[in-house]
Amino acid sequence: xxxxxxxxxxxxxxxxxxxxxxxxxxxxxxxxxxxxxxxxxxxxxxxxxxxxxxxxxxxxxxxxxxxxxxxxxxxxxxxxxxxxxxxxxxxxxxxxxxxxxxxxxxxxxxxxxxxxxxxxxxxxxxxxxxxxxxxxxxxxxxxxxxxxxxxxxxxxxxxxxxxxxxxxxxxxxxxxxxxxxxxxxxxxxxxxxxxxxxxxxxxxxxxxxxxxxxxxxxxxxxxxxxxxxxxxxxxxxxxxxxxxxxxxxxxxxxxxxxxx
Length: 260
What we know:
Blueprint: H1 6-12, E1 16-21, E2 24-29, E3 40-45, E4 48-53, E5 56-57, E6 63-64, H2 68-91, H3 100-112, H4 121-128, H5 132-141, H6 152-163, E7 186-189, E8 195-196, E9 201-210, E10 216-226, E11 232-241
Antiparallel strand pairs: 1-2, 3-4, 5-6, 7-9, 8-9, 9-10, 10-11
Helix pairs in contact: 3-4, 4-6
C-alpha cells in the first residue's frame, strides 16, 4: 500500500526546491522566511532554513502554546528530517561514481518508489539524470514548457500522472495504490556489459523480467552521454514491450517470439 508521509511533505518540501543551471537540475534550500514576520521564530542550520510559527494564549498572560522545550525539540526534529532528505538526494545520481548499470537501477527504483524521500522525487530523478535534449523530449511528451521558468515540482507531478495512466505500457514502472513501494514486481537483468564508444557516449541493455516466472516483459536500451564533470546522463531510451497487451511497444517493430 502506498503511504505518503504528510509530516515530511509539510516540513521538508517547503524548505527544498529544484533549480536548473548549466544544463542540469540541482537541489537547493529555500531562503529562510523574513525575520521581521510576527509570531514566527526562524533558525538556520548550515544551509538549511526553517521556521516554526506559534500563537499566544490570550488567557494565559501571553504564554506560548508550546513551551520552549517542546518547541526546541520540534525544531530539532525538523532539522533532522531536512538533513536526512538532503543527504539522501545528494547520494543519488548523477554522480561520477555511478556506473551505467547503477544509474539505470537507481532511476527505475526511484520511479517505483517515487515518493521517497520526497513526493514525486522519483520523477525528478528521471529529469535530473537526463541530458538537455532528452529532458526536452520528456517535457514535450507531457505538454510542459521547455524554456523559461519551469515549476519542476509541478512538472514532476504531471510526469508521474502521465506514466501512471491506465492501460499505459509505461505503467509498469510505477507503483499503484495497492502496490508495495518497497518491492518492484520485476527483476532487472543486464545481459551484456555496457558498450562504451570511448567518445563520451555508451549504450546499455536492461531487461525487465517477471519476478515470479522470470518471463521477459520489456527490453530497454539506454543511450548514455558523459557530462563534462564525469557523471553519466541518459540521452535516450528505447522500449520494446513483449507483453501481449502492449507488444511491440510504441514506435517498435515486432520481434520473433523465440527471443524470450
